[in-house]
Amino acid sequence: MGNIRTVNGDISADGLGLIYSHEHLITCPPPVQKDRDLELDSYECSLQELKIFRDVGGTLLVEATTLDYGRDPDQMARMSREANVPVVAVSGFNKAAYFPLWIETTSLNGIADKLIRDVTEGMDGGPHKAGHLKSGGSYNFIHPLEDKTTRAVARAHHETGAPIWLHTEAGTMGNEMLDILQDEGVDLSEVVVGHCDRNADPYYHQSLANRGAHVQFDGVGKVKYHPDSTRIACIKAMLDAGHGSRLLISGDMGRAAYLAGYGGGPGFAYIATKFIPRMRAEGISDNAIEQIFKKTPAAWLAKF
Q1: Which domains, and CATH codes, for the chain?
Q2: pTM of structure
């Protein structure tokens, strides 16, 4: 297994424990997003949340804030050092509704070059490198600019080896984005399809895993979408289908209202203190839990 690229340098993938594979620390969505609860703008509040993650046994956090969503490499790196938690940053994009104008005016390969520099030299011209790449689609369709950015991510992946994470809007268009990556020659085992539990359809989940991609459930504790009983059932369906090594779980706690540091909940403690114990209580083995929260994310990230 190789190393994992964090904002403060490459680290060994060996010896890591609990990994959250999709979270947010500092965000600033563009003005088109009117729901400002999605803005995480307090260094101190986010630092408190990262320390909570550390205190419940967290050993690595993947920070998923993109170029079009207010990524802040310097604050991320400082927070990682202060909390003593390795943090993996991302280069790439969320969805077309958030894209800055330069996505339209820059060539596909020009976009790829920007992503490559973020991974190999440092994000936005600074010293802190990204450790994975991200692209996304819209709800039940892929915008032409999302096709463009997904192809740019594929080309940056080929150049850097950095693994890929896909944003799906409400769990839709996962296979269609995989089609684009496959057309660009990407090995789909390098890819995680996110937000899949928003579309709580085991057939869909298994269709992604059957292609070699990883499936991520990252709505844990968000009862407004589905109760956790639905997620447990989807996890068991993946395990029963033999796809335990293709499954990742995280919280995607990207709202101030979700984070204890901002006075909300369930926060970063929830998976470690409530959801994993529930998984055990519902008959999911310790081996499966270790695979989901330690082995699979470490192997996916360890490309450096």
Answers
A1: 3-301 (3.20.20.140)
A2: 0.97
